[in-house]
Amino acid sequence: MLAGPSAADCVGITAPALRCWADSLLFADPIPLRTMPIFELLPLLPVQHHQTSLLPPVSQVQIDDYQVKLRMPDSGIYAGEPLDLEFRVTDTRQKDPVENGFKGVGGITATAKVTMPSMQGMPEMRPKVHREGVPGDYGLELFFPHGGIYQIDLSLKLPGVETPKAVTFRVAVKDERPAVSKVQPPYKLRVLPPSSPRVMGKSTELQMQVVNTKTGQVEKAFDEAHTQKFHLLIASQDLNWFRHEHPVMAADGTWKYSLAFPAGTDYLVFGDVAPQGQGSRILASRISVKGTKPTWNTRIALNSQSTDNGLKGLFSSAIKVKSAQSAVLQVKLFDSKTGMAAGDTTPWLGAAGHMMIFHTDGKTVVHSHPQEDAESEELVRKGIVRFSARFPKPGTYKVYSQFSWRGSIRTLSFGLKVQE
Amino acid sequence: MKFQTLIFTAVCLSVAAVSIAHEGDCPFCKLKLVQNTADQDNEVVLRFGNKKIEYRCIFCVFKDQKRYKGDLVVYAPSEKVGEPVILKRTDGKWTAPEGVVFLNSFKKHIDCAALSRAFSSVAAYDAYVKKNDLKETKAFTLAEFVDFMVKPAK
Fold this sequence. Notes:
The structure holds two protein chains of two kinds. Chain A has helices at 15-26, 38-41, 374-381, and strands spanning 60-63, 66-70, 77-78, 83-95, 102-104, 109-115, 129-131, 137-142, 148-157, 165-174, 187-191, 203-212, 230-236, 242-245, 248-249, 254-260, 266-273, 281-288, 305-308, 311-317, 326-335, 345-346, 354-359, 364-368, 384-390, 395-405, 408-418. Chain A is mainly beta. Chain A folds into three domains: 7-174, Immunoglobulin-like (Sandwich); 187-288, Immunoglobulins (Immunoglobulin-like, Sandwich), CATH 2.60.40.10; 305-418, Immunoglobulin-like (Sandwich), CATH 2.60.40.1930. Chain B has a single domain, classed as Beta-Lactamase (2-Layer Sandwich), CATH 3.30.450. Chain B has a five-stranded antiparallel sheet with strand order 3-2-4-5-6. Chain B starts with 5 loop residues before the first strand and ends with a helix. At the A-B interface, strand 18, strand 24 and strand 25 of A face strand 1 and strand 2 of B.
């Protein structure tokens, strides 16, 4: 394998620097990444590749006479934990009278925007920025819902400087760590108790609220993600029954959806939501339904073929999927009657396909969409839909992928074992 | 390399609350720290070596100073956003920039962040007193303020 640059060699967030960083991840020469098909590229990834465990290549930016530096925690940044991430703005023309280094610039009015470049459909986060007590020190109130590479854009209005300064950082966020410290997430999904017990086969109205855990208030303002403000994902406890629906919100912030459950068991209820300005996240709850036990097989089959109403899918990955790693998952679609590639799927909810992936722990969920670019669209026309996913822990996952094909939504289900 | 759109979330169903760092309690009075606002700084920062400790007001800092053996720097919120008054304790002796005065007139400690503050000048002090309609206040010099702080409570 060829030796490439290390992440530390790559300075800045310019296109060449990012390219340099990507190359460093691959430990390879600067291969023309954009022109190389991903399924040929992926085998180059080293086995120990841990994309999100790397710190960002740069956490310091110089603009004119000012330096802006993120204070990254020594242990890195983890998903699922509220974080007050400090940054310091200094004037390089003066020494600070107390702190080491350049003089801190106090009194800045700042705004921030956080996005994931790899997640085109994810609503942006607009975290609060506050001044700390030391001039030049500021804090960003962040919560990263999942691991990956995030971009932080700051707009800094410096005292006496007319035009705001724009600063961009990229940070690597690690997957959620085991509960070494018990952290209260900013939001929770509350499923209101039903007026009478939920019984299988009988229509019941699910009433759900997204609650701000700090204030206790019910959230009423949401950003849209893939044309909807609430993606309701319901799975039986064994994960072998699944629905993806879109409830309607009442004026008081209660989301409602009526459905009949097929068996008496526990069900996992997930709300994929983006509280206004806070970015996407999946909130989990659980309900019980009375009735006879499921008649379906409650074990998860590790199948790679699935058919729904004439649409057949073959599920594969380019490399062996490992935990804490990004993987490209592919569904190759066919018309099961003719055996021809099904290149005539149409976008649904703003995407060529949707993939929901559930770990058997009932807590870990992946919701993935294909890239929205010409290359991906070309593949879709050949019946090939590719998704990217990160698996934070080893174990068995149930995979549901959904496509709009010839007038209705087809749901294909697969099983996947992820190794350490 | 093209990464495709991804939404992933891991969630824990059973959790307990913690708060993020800048929303802590004052180490002296144990009340919540008062956050800076758009037009007024409130956070008092004590620097001891490489450590930075946030206090609710300068009263709390001076009352708690004995626990630190060595030199101290205190960033005391002033009338100017982002420009605190810098107080220093060197070899046990407190110093402040020329002209600095102090307000210390709270009756209940809950009001300390608003009524135990430093100002870069008497004029700034007067403006604050007028704006907040404060009665029976006095602009303490540093020497008076330090003296007041070390006096035993009656």
